[in-house]
Description:
This protein is of the alpha+beta class. The protein contains three helices and three strands, in the order E-E-E-H-H-H.
Amino acid sequence: MTYEFTPRGVCSQKMIIDVEDGVVRELQVLGGCNGNLKGISSLVKGMKIEDVIERLEGIRCGMKPTSCPDQLARALKEMSK
């Protein structure tokens, strides 16, 4: 299943997440810090949704109350409902 998520409060503009059997198969992030987000995308491939949420939820970016990783966790939680 492919899910599109619009992050809030961060630089990235859209996340396209492909999940199969509860595992992240692909993540594409548009906008934001290109290298860091490519790295995060590579690291979460093959991970269970629950593990990604556990590791990334609550991460902040500077003084912002959220971050791109936190927004990814929120997207996956929303997607899991």
